[in-house]
Amino acid sequence: MTSELTHEDLWVVAKKYLEEKGLVRQHLDSYNRFVREILPSIIEEFNVVPVTENISLYIEKPRIGQPQWVEVDGTPQYKTPLECRIRNLTYMAPVDVTVRLEGDGVYKEAVLRLMELPVMLKSEIDPLSKLTPEEIVERGEDPNDPGGYFIINGSEKVLVAQEDLASNTILVDYGQEGSGITHTAKVVSAARGRRSQLIIDRRKDGIFYANFQGHRIPAVILMIALGLDTREVLYAVSPDPAYHTYVLPSILQAEQVLPKLEVPQGLSDEELRQYIEEYRKKLVEEALDYIGSRFAIGRPRVERVERARRLLDERLLPHIGTDSSRETRVLKAVFIGQMIARIIELMLGRRQPDDKDHYRNKRLRLAGDLLATLVRTALVSFTREVRAELEKQLSKSRKIELKAAFKHSIITDRILHAMATGNWPGGRTGVSQLLDRTNMVSTLSHLRRVVSPLARGQPHFEARELHGTQWGRICPFETPEGANIGLVKNLALLVNVSVGIDDKPVEEVLYELGTIPVVTRKIKGRVIKGYLDDVVEKLEKGELTGEEYAGWSRVFLNGKLIGYHPNGGQLVETLRNLRRQSKLPFKASELNVTHVHTEFFDEVIVSTDPGRIRRPLIVVENGKPKLTREHVEKLKTGELSFEDLVRMGVVEYLDPDEEENALMAF
């Protein structure tokens, strides 16, 4: 038997992949993650509802029941998908929570319904997913039906994958002619259903401005309001002194607006330190007042400062964090510094404008992400209603009726209305569509459809054209003719869409592998001094030459700068080897890592976020594929699964970013 692989052997691997994953795995994985991780985290975000100054409502311990329907006599009964179709019902499961009202001598606790959640067929909360083909037939369902859709009022609805620009990723471009803007950097920050856009513009006078929540604010004042002083602003942009010259005009402009440091004579070292500390607090407060005066015009100073502080914590770059800790604020300031650094690199010709049509800058928003946005919007309205009802009950009498205030129909109706009409928060339309049941092929095609949000009436030539990075990811033929051409696409057969994993364990691994964090961090009981703290300490001692970190690699995790590494190439090589050996403390196959090294900059890009379109590829080492005839034979007999090949490092999933960093044979 020859050891060379044949086309038939590769077909065995491809067939195994399709048998294990199916053709709608992307929807099922996304929904399962939503149910398992995202929904509890969104509910936790709204777990405290302040009713009065001393009384609060606590929403805890969410749990999802079996799909059911409440009959006219009030008895809940399990309904099969078939019965829902026939009786024009919605296939949904109850989400119950423990509700506790306490404070000011009041204490009440109850288990109440928060909402009814539409169940995706064949997902982990659907009983059909645990049945054998024979049992599925008994329930009146087709065992070959792929699932991945919902039943709303008796109609089969699919949430069509939405193609979006990658969140939390900085995109730089030239400014429009005649706008007064020379270069611009844009990021759409998204986390847990929150979305917020930040734009940094460099104007003709060389000053950087932030466009935040519809207001133009000098970028340096924004960074100072987040807790940096002017020296730290320079090093937040880059450790390379060559960049600092281009930031100085912005710093000089900020110094004209903010109070200057005037040190009195004859102060001891301790008094001087305290004086500088007080000045820094005053500087931050003045910067906050400057920002607050744009949003709370004519309000008292205290109110302006508080409004600015709340906006910076909750609305500015929510993917970095929404808490008010020093660490989160400094990381937000450093992120703004990186946006400025990229503008400077573009201005100096060290970097090209970002290609919005490159698939590294695209993400698919699947059922889980779309439902997260919907549930979060509905919860905002729900908590407002609950607070108003409880306040009303307290003002009329001290008798509290939690069940009367807790109307689960508020959230349920909002979800069902969006899924029935296809109108989504944010002005999107046609998100939910009636599943095409012409035949099995048209059903599968509909479930693998990808829709671009761009207007159909505009030319958008670049967006409609076939891009090189769509090779192996998007079908080059299956697109409608007419106004939708190139904007409505379909996934290629062997595509894998990343589900996403939590950042924290990945971040810890990067620090263990020698990455220096931006701010001082405690990792597994060990304190690692941060880059910014080290820079400030050396500046005060007069030891900093400006070259210490200049040649180091910037390490980005899902778009945010987490630190610097002395040897980016070595870090990437180590991460890839650990992934292939499955020696990482998280799902290794979700991680993709890229080393972008040019004459002018050095970056390591680590991605673990959901919605990246990836391809399974056979690993080649020393000119030989790691897949052997022995593996193929074991796949045929069932001794090995496709996931086993991934765990063994024989096959790995590459996203468009890592593909740019790899040599591939076709």
Oligomer: single chain
What's the number of extended β-strand segments? 30
Number of helices: 21
Which outline best applies?
Answer: globular
CATH class of the domain at 171-354: Alpha Beta
CATH-assigned homologous superfamily of the domain at 171-354? RNA polymerase Rpb2, domain 2
Identify low-pLDDT runs.
Answer: none
Based on helices, strands and strand pairing, what is the structural class? alpha+beta
Radius of gyration from the alpha-carbon trace, in angstroms: 28 Å
Could you say what the CATH architecture of the domain at 171-354 is?
A: Alpha-Beta Complex
Largest sheet: 5 strands, antiparallel
CATH-derived topology of the domain at 171-354: Dna-directed Rna Polymerase Ii 140kd Polypeptide, Chain: B, domain 3
Estimated share of beta-strand residues: 15-25%
Task: Report the end-to-end length measured between terminal Cα atoms.
Answer: 25 Å
State the helical fraction.
Answer: 25-40%
Quick check: average pLDDT?
A: 89
Instruction: Please give the order of strands in the largest beta sheet.
Output: 10-11-12-13-14
Overview of this protein structure:
There is one protein chain. This protein has 666 residues and is of the alpha+beta class. Among the domains are: 171-354, RNA polymerase Rpb2, domain 2 (Dna-directed Rna Polymerase Ii 140kd Polypeptide, Chain: B, domain 3, Alpha-Beta Complex), CATH 3.90.1110; 503-659, Hypothetical Protein Ta0175, Chain: A, domain 2 (Alpha-Beta Complex), CATH 3.90.1070. It has 21 helices and 30 strands. The protein has a five-stranded antiparallel β-sheet with strand order 10-11-12-13-14. A hairpin with a 2-residue loop joins β13 (208-212) and β14 (215-218). The two termini are 25 Å apart. The relative contact order is 0.12. The mean pLDDT is 89.
